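# nightly structure sweep
# worker-07 picked up a monomer target from the shared queue
# config: single-sequence mode, recycle default, output format = structure tokens
# input follows
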Amino acid sequence: MKQVFFFIWIALSFFSCKEEKKMDFDIYDGPEVIIHNVVMEVSDSTILKLKLTAKTQLMLANKDREFPDGVFIKFYNDIGQVNSTLRADHGYYFEKEKYYKAEGNVIMKSLANGDELSTELLNWVPEDERIYTDNFVTIKTDDEVMTGEGLEAKEDFEEYTILKPSGTMTLIPVATAPPKRNVR
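# output follows
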């Protein structure tokens, strides 16, 4: 009889064990906050350094930010004057790495020297006050157009280096001819 109870006890013990079900949850990585008509000003010791405007800002769970409807940034010099601007179709800020990325029809202008950079991707590291890209770039100055792959520059865009220049075209102003007259 002891053996029968022993086998019943083993059988009940075996069947009473339940396999624990593990619940897998997808981690939500979408926006936690959506902000419209963003105007963000950054200053250092009461001196305005930049002003960022965007139609929409998405705050993600990992504290990154996305600007899906474009971004416009004004960079200010030490006396509070705008010295360069940046416009792009799409923007990102990466919290962990502490840098911005601008994508799509990126245009950066130096108001000091009139130079204009156009590219499809540009990175900006505020802490280092520098911008860079590995993509194709075109820079227009008053009298030439330069092209190449990659760029490194200060954020004011007054000094820059095209890493792999591919061409320079000198622009010659066209003299305006006097209007033609009908002579009979």
